[in-house]
Write a structure and sequence with these properties.
With about 250 residues, the protein is an alpha+beta fold. The chain folds into two domains: about 1-80, OB fold (Dihydrolipoamide Acetyltransferase, E2P) (Beta Barrel); about 90-249, de novo design (two linked rop proteins) (Up-down Bundle), CATH 1.20.1440. The protein contains eight helices and eight strands, in the order E-E-E-E-E-H-H-H-H-E-E-E-H-H-H-H. The protein has a five-stranded mixed beta barrel. The chain has a three-stranded antiparallel sheet with strand order 7-6-8. A hairpin with a 5-residue loop joins strand 4 (about 55-65) and strand 5.
């Protein structure tokens, strides 16, 4: 494939040999990328501070079709979140988001909507850390939606009807919903009208507007995020660490 130049978000790094690092990035034009940054651990590395987690960078790398690892030649820092990323709560939340990205995003599979969604979530939470929890729920919702794993809560999975906004619904084992007129065999739990509106609102607005919408409704937000985490665990066939429950006991 040759040389690729794109914008990227540094997800994580880890050491390789004595002086090198493996860098994992979510890129705008090439999806999830894992690459080798030679000499990155040296004091006078040409990569400078561009490898800090959650940095937005311009990156150039050489990619061979038969290899997953790319050879990173240049990284230019566009925006650093180093100061906020050093906060333990922020770091724990976005480390969870980074783990989800690595689990859901296939290597070298371009998804500009996923990239833009991830970046705006990062920017929103960095600008106002008080909205970390709703932003993470927003991120979980869109990660499932863009992957095609989010059930449509707009319609009853039994009759196909559209429940009214003030209508109580029930959650099914497959995470679909049933309206009040359907029996809902094997239903897991009843959803309040606001809990259902949380998932619907997240799909129609920005992270900041979503945070304003759920302000003061933390109990409902925690419940919906718990459902989303169960969807994620079912999709991946495993639990993912550092979730809401882990960082908010």
């Amino acid at each position: 494939m040759g040389v690729v130049e794109t914008e990227g978000l540094v997800i994580r790094t880890y050491p390789l040999a004595d002086a090198d690092k493996i860098v994992v990035l979510l890129t705008r034009d090439d999806g999830l990328v894992r690459g080798v940054a030679k000499g990155a651990k040296r004091l006078k590395s040409r990569f400078g501070s561009g490898l800090e987690p959650f940095s937005v960078v311009r990156i150039s790398y050489f990619r061979k079709e038969e290899r997953e690892l790319v050879a990173i030649s240049q990284i230019e820092l566009e925006r650093s979140y180093f100061s906020i990323a050093s906060d333990p709560v922020f770091l724990q939340h976005f480390s969870y988001a980074a783990e989800l990205l690595q689990s859901f995003a296939p290597p070298h599979d371009p998804n500009e909507r996923l990239y833009k969604m991830t970046r705006i979530c990062l920017e929103t939470a960095a600008d106002d850390p008080s909205v970390l929890l709703p932003v993470l729920t927003y991120f979980e919702t869109w990660l499932l939606k863009l992957g095609g794993f989010l059930p449509p809560w707009e319609r009853c999975s039994d009759c196909g009807g559209e429940p009214a906004l003030d209508e109580e619904t029930a959650l099914q084992p497959d995470f679909g919903i049933v309206c009040s007129r359907c029996s809902g065999r094997g239903r897991i739990q009843v959803l309040s009208t606001f809990q259902r509106s949380i998932l619907l609102k997240a799909q129609k607005t920005s992270p900041l507007k979503f945070a304003e919408f759920v302000s003061g409704k933390e109990k409902d937000l925690v419940e919906v995020s718990s459902i989303l985490r169960r969807m994620i665990a079912r999709t991946l066939n495993r639990e993912v660490g550092n979730s809401w429950a882990a960082v908010n006991p």
